[in-house]
Every structure is written in C-alpha cells, then in structure tokens.
C-alpha cells in the first residue's frame, strides 16, 4: 500500500492498494496527482519506495526536490507515520478484506472520510478538505420562458421579470416609474 499525504494541508491525496507495488505504480500515482493538482516544487519526502531510479529521474525532470528519509527513522516523517497508524487503528485492524477490490473500496471510503469529515486537532478540529454543500432551493424551480426542461435548466425567481426575458414597451416602463 502506498499513501501520499500533503503534510502542510494534512490531507491524504491518495492511497494506492495493491499486493505488490513497482516503480511504475508509484509513477502512475504521482503522475495522476500532479495532473490533478499542479506539481509542487517544494520537497517531497523520499521513502525507500521512491528510491527507484525511474522515480528519482522523473521527479528530477519535473523539478520536484526530494528529501531522503533514512530507513528505520520514523521520526523524520512523523506526520506520515502518524497517518499510517491512524489508518491501521481505524480501518486495517478492524476489517477482513476478502478481495483486493473490497480493500480498494473500503480504503478509499475511509480516505474520503478522513479528508472531509474526520476532525483534525492540528486544524482546530476541522477536516482538511470539507465538502462544499450547496443549499437545496426552498421553492420548486421555475423555467424561463421558452426554455426546455432538462438537467441544466436555470432557477428563476417567478416574481422577477428581467427585461432580456420579457420584452416591455417604453410606455409600460414610464408607467412603472410613476
């Protein structure tokens, strides 16, 4: 299992679940993350799984600096070790995975919970990446004149009458101003 964590934001960016990980798997995970969230130039902590020549070369070509963590030195990567302990205590020790797919689904569900719901004391007991929730409209949606109903229709206040939707004559405008 490969865990990728943003130590500054306290967010788990990815957990790659596999029976065995190669340097190609690590490169794929990092490529996906760098495409999704622009590549950062600040140091990436380099654990032994990142020491493959292909991974080191690729990181150097895209301008990411690395910090090497000596094997057997967990204090050099305290947040990552703490995260792995929470993952183990809150999920891995409590579950029996009958397939790799089941492990992927349950671990991804836990990762989303960790990022969006679970409070973090270092962040004032807030989650690192809370979900943005838009309030549900109080009134049923009203379609604009001439607009077909569909998944992308706009909500309109039935009491407002924008001039671009309902042509008005000048006499009516003068009467409204009086």
Q: Can you walk me through this structure?
A:
Helices cover 35% and strands 10% of the residues. Strands 1-2 form a two-stranded antiparallel ribbon. Strands 3-4 form a two-stranded parallel sheet. The chain has a domain at 2-123: Ribonuclease H-like superfamily/Ribonuclease H (Nucleotidyltransferase, domain 5). Residues 151-167 have low confidence and may be disordered. The chain starts with a strand and ends with a helix. By secondary structure, the protein is of the alpha+beta class.
Summarize the structure.
Residues 1-135 form the Integrase catalytic domain. It holds the Pfam family rve_3. With 178 residues, this protein is an alpha+beta fold.
Task: List the main descriptive attributes of the protein structure presented here.
4 strands; 178 residues; extended; Nucleotidyltransferase, domain 5; alpha+beta; single chain
What's the SSE blueprint?
Elements: E1 2-6, E2 11-16, H1 23-36, E3 44-46, H2 53-61, E4 66-68, H3 78-92, H4 100-116, H5 170-177
Parallel strand pairs: 3-4
Antiparallel strand pairs: 1-2
Pfam families: rve_3
Domain Integrase catalytic: 1-135
Biased composition (Basic and acidic residues): 167-178
């Amino acid at each position: 299992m490969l865990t990728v964590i943003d130590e500054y934001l306290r967010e788990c960016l990815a957990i790659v679940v596999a029976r065995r990980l190669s340097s190609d798997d690590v490169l794929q995970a990092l490529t996906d993350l760098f495409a999704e969230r622009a590549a950062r130039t600040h140091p990436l902590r380099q654990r032994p799984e990142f020491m493959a020549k292909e991974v080191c070369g690729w990181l150097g070509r895209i301008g990411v600096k690395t910090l090497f963590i000596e094997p057997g030195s967990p204090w050099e990567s305290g947040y990552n070790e703490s995260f792995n302990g929470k993952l183990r205590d809150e999920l891995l020790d409590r579950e029996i995975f009958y397939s790799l797919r089941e492990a992927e689904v349950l671990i991804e569900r836990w990762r989303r919970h960790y990022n969006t719901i679970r409070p973090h004391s270092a962040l004032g007991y807030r989650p690192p990446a809370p979900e943005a929730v838009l309030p549900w409209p109080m009134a049923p949606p009203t379609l604009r004149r001439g607009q077909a109903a569909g998944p992308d229709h706009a909500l309109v206040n039935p009491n407002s009458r924008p001039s671009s939707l309902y042509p008005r004559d000048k006499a009516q405008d003068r009467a409204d101003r009086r």
